[in-house]
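Quick check before the chapter quiz. The format below is the same one you will see on the exam, so make sure you can read both the input and the output lines.
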Amino acid sequence: MPSAAREESQAGLWRIGALVFLVAFAVRGLHLAFFRSASFFPLLVGDARGYEAWARRLAAGDWVGSEVFYQAPLYPYLLGLWYALAGPDLLALRVLQIALGALACALVAVASGRLFGRNAGWAAGLLLAFYAPAIFFDLLVQKAVLDLLLVALLLQLVSLLVERVDRRLAFWAGVVLGLLVLSRENAVVLLPVFLAWIWCRARPRAASVLLCVAGVAAVLAPVAVRNYRIGGELQLTTAQLGPNLYIGNHDGATGSYVPLRPGRGDASFERRDAADLAEAASGRKLTAGEVSRYWRERATGWIRAHPGRWLELLGRKLLLAWNGQEAMDTEDLATHAEVSPPLRWLARLAHFGLLAPLALLGIWWSRERGRELWVLHASIGVYTASLVAFYVVARYRLPLVPMLAPFAGFALVEIPARWRRGPAGERLRAGLILAVAGLMVNLPLLPRLAGASGESLRALTHLNYAQAFEVQGKSEEASAQYRRALELDPANAHAHTNLGVLAAGRGEREAALRHFQAAAASAPGQARNQSNLGVELQVQGRTAEAIASFERAVALEPRDAGFRFQLGAALAAAGRPGSAIAQFEEFLRLEPGDAEGVQAAKAHNNLGILLASTGRAAEAVPHFAAAVRLDPDFRDAALNLARARDLSIAGPAAP
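Here is the expected output.
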């Protein structure tokens, strides 16, 4: 193509990109206008709460931190930079993010136009502009908006490398790949694909590949060095590979997210739970790398022991990865659609169930260009494999969307012409691809495969909002959200538990008991539910029933010192000193002293009282002394110590 014609063609593509940007920005802005009026607009839940707290620390000057990264750092660091420049304004942040999301749509339009022609560029860009999950994620305080933008940038570089060989493009492809890995760790699987493709296309080969590697290293090396200096171990990006692998590959795995500890799915718990469980099993303090290695070995050990079940689980995850339903894990698109008509309308039309069949047809129709485009085919395949290796949630799947969009756009513009003029056999094959893919992708498999219905996902969203309102001290708003969660999922144990806590705080004893009983019945395998029920029963003077609940909690989690304390106190109140002594002794073995010393001090004091009451005053003295040492302001313990030394019997056990 002559230079002037080529420049005109490029300018035309960028004009298409600019128009797609405006459309995408307008659609997202309209959604923002409705979303802004929602009561949950200012709430930050799940990872968003952690990112926001991290960004505030960064904006305050703590740019290095003190721990090996557990979560991907790119989004929090950019958020921290934004906070340092513009302050923590959620509305301004969301306007920025819809601009980034619109830019991703524009880049996809330009790249698709370069690969398949202007009409395909229009179609691909508009598909992404109206794609409901992308609109939804662009307004969340989540890294998904960066994932879309970075994959769109990669697509742009691929389209340029298809058009012309340029070593500089190989370097920038490496930089963008490195940034993508800092946002979405499993994207590291794309690196060998791009290196192989650049080796095949670029000249000179070795220099181009080395430049791509240099681009990746320029981004990842500083993070790896930082992690090594802090943790003493090489962690390329984060130390959560092991826990994530285990979450997706163990006896209780569903194919989607399940917490390491039942009932503790909040992101704020995951790192601590991973370390606590690994250290309890290992019997020593572990580094971040050792914690990850422990969980990785648990997962791989399970895979070796159960190859058949693992293969079945892989098949389940593959179906989830290519299903039209979105496996949400913190906030649900349907909940946002309740307050946003544009999102509600688009969710019925522009979704994965439409995009994926069109993309598969586009891949089939562009098969003659496999030598040019195999990097995209392989990227779709290996990224899907990376999802299947771990577990599937909607935000993890989102990077597939801009990879699929060019092929879907190409198929859309080709369907009319090929249907009119194509051979009958080709029309039949195309129809079969669309029909079979459309049927498979749009089957309502999420409830069967991952045990998560649309109602349960919406209930989880309202549960998260309720907890966020509680943190703000807004108990009425929290109660309303919990009640909404129960309307959607009447057996939601978390909602029952938290409504019980709120009712107990207001002195509504019967309501509290009713909710705690419902929580224990809905999730009998969660020790905390049994413990909460036991506490309420004890408050109401039903000690025998309380003891039974505490015993169930201890049986479920025998290493939890808190449950031992509760059972010991209930046994003491029931006049069973021998059994109570055993529980307090076990508490002290598991937890010889907490951060403040208060709980351990109470345990020592209670144990001393029980020993003294059974005529073992001499054995009680060191326990009273330990209570005073741990909590110098514990006056009852000091008095009991003096009495025990005088061989007097101390008073009743402290609750």
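If your answer matched, good. The two ends are 86 Å apart (CA to CA).
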